[in-house]
Design a protein that fits this description.
The structure is a single chain. By secondary structure, the protein is an alpha+beta fold. It is built from two helices and four strands, in the order βαβββα. The chain has one domain. It has a four-stranded mixed β-sheet, covered by helices on one side. The chain is elongated and about 55 Å long. The C terminus is likely disordered.
């Protein structure tokens, strides 16, 4: 992502739309990957578990910095959304949709 920034850019966002059932795992893994990046400098601000701002140095620039905000949105899995809507009986998660009986 840092390759797409110009020298004037100071703010950017990385947005993840997750359909994973375990969104906490997605958030934690995203945090690990961001902090492992060679241009990572510091975590600046935590607005929520799924919205965090980090400070990075820009590619090829030792003195230029930018702020990257990580946003993770939980869209829920198809099965979870169907269960919430009352279309899937509890305990049937993982059952192919065509075999459900209501």
């Amino acid at each position: 992502m840092l390759n797409y920034l110009t020298w004037r850019d100071t703010k950017t966002s990385y947005i993840i739309f997750s359909k994973n059932v375990d969104v906490k795992r997605v958030i934690n893994r995203s945090k690990e990957l961001v902090q492992a990046h060679p241009n990572f400098m510091a975590m600046e601000k935590t607005m929520s578990d799924s919205c965090i701002t980090y400070r990075f140095k820009q590619n090829g620039e030792t003195s230029k910095e930018c702020f990257m905000t990580l946003h993770v949105f939980d869209l829920g899995s198809r099965e979870t959304n169907l269960r919430i809507a009352g279309q899937v009986p509890d305990g049937s998660i993982g059952t192919p949709i065509g075999t459900l009986t209501t």
